[in-house]
From TrEMBL:
Entry's family note: Belongs to the class II fructose-bisphosphate aldolase family.
Keywords assigned by UniProt, alphabetized: Glycolysis, Lyase, Metal-binding, Zinc
One Pfam family matching this protein: F_bP_aldolase
EC annotation from Swiss-Prot or TrEMBL: 4.1.2.13
Residues where Zn(2+) 2 binds: 105, 135
Protein name: Fructose-bisphosphate aldolase
Protein source organism: Allisonella histaminiformans
Length: 310
């Protein structure tokens, strides 16, 4: 199978009450680790590149590395997705460059402006056989969300979500229900607004919802980073059982970047400290790649639940 879009994988995930893991890729070792895990678990997977990843590696490198990986595991459905495209031009560049899915993140814009640009991206993408993820609601800085007013101000409004999808024709929608990006998601108790997710699911039946900021910030990797000279303090993510529950609901795509960063950094730190005489990058990058693979295998089994689903 060549690279594919996300339609079929989301359809099956929705019906099967699981989700597809969307993992951020920045280099060859990360791509290889994720693909080895997807192959071992016989699961579809989404490889996503942010604007930062495209700048770091060079977009054609990412596209060609992913295409090479897809040739190696022809039975694994793989989508190549743009993560958080900030404008029409970046989305167009990815569509023209071989991506099978793009996100336009207009969440910082007023509703009408978000609708306008999302529509423009959808029009171009669909004409080129590419699917579009959009975003509504604000993900950042949810500090111990307690009051209903505070939630309503930041989280996605279910009725607006339904209206947004109807107006734009986007193929999936990222919503804000309590997650946030990075390693420091909650200063108090972890929280996900399932009631809101349920409402969105009712208003948008059979429609794939996306959860950004869905790393667990796996404690053993944080501990290992710190054991081998790192300083990652006070990090907290979304517990696995909470994500698993969301995956059984309307959530079909679970975004994971921070857990990759932590797994890879922990393994590289350990390797460098344990083998101070070594200066061959292949040695510590191999350890990093193995950690990515192990972490992604675990996610596919225990969090997104997509093992043996192809
Ligand atoms: O949402 C993400 C990428 O778009 C990643 O989220 P994390 O920072 O929780 O891994
Ligand atoms: O949501 C953001 C992703 O974690 C990508 O991060 P990045 O822009 O630093 O590549
Ligand atoms: Zn195989
Ligand atoms: Zn994100």
């Amino acid at each position: 199978m060549a690279l594919t879009d996300t339609k079929e994988m989301f359809r099956k995930a929705y019906e099967g009450h699981y989700a597809i893991g969307a993992f951020n890729v920045n280099n060859m070792e990360i791509i290889q680790g994720i693909m080895e895990a997807a192959h071992e678990e016989q699961s579809a997977v989404i490889l996503q590149a942010s604007e930062g990843a495209r700048k770091y590696a060079g977009s054609p490198y990412i596209v060609d590395l992913v295409k090479t990986a897809v040739r190696q595991y022809p039975e694994i459905p793989v989508a190549l997705h743009l993560d958080h495209g900030s404008c029409f031009e970046v989305c167009k560049d990815c569509i023209d460059g071989g991506f099978t899915s793009v996100m336009f993140d207009g969440s910082k814009h007023p509703f009408e402006e978000n609708v306008r640009i999302t529509k423009q991206v959808v029009e171009y993408a669909h004409a080129h056989g590419v699917v579009v993820e959009a975003e509504l609601g604000r993900l950042a800085g949810v500090e111990d969300m307690v009051s209903v007013d505070a939630k309503d101000a930041i989280f996605t409004d279910p009725e607006e979500a339904a209206e947004f999808v109807a107006l734009t024709g986007c193929d999936s929608l990222a919503i804000a229900i309590g997650t946030s990006h990075g390693a420091y998601k909650y200063s108090g108790e972890p929280y996900l607004d399932y009631e809101r997710l349920e409402k969105v699911g009712k208003l948008l039946p059979n429609y794939p919802i996306v959860l950004h900021g869905a790393s667990t910030v796996i404690p053993e990797y944080v501990a290992k980073c710190n054991e081998f000279g790192g300083k990652v303090l006070g990090a907290k993510g979304v517990p696995e059982d909470m994500l698993r529950k969301a995956a059984t609901m309307a959530v079909c795509k679970i975004n994971i970047d921070t857990d990759i960063r932590l797994a890879m950094t922990a393994a590289i730190r350990e390797s460098l400290v344990k083998h101070p005489e070594n200066f061959d990058p292949r040695s510590y990058l191999k350890a990093g790649r193995q950690a990515v693979k192990d972490m992604v295998s675990h996610k596919i089994q225990a969090v997104v639940g997509s093992s043996h689903s192809i």
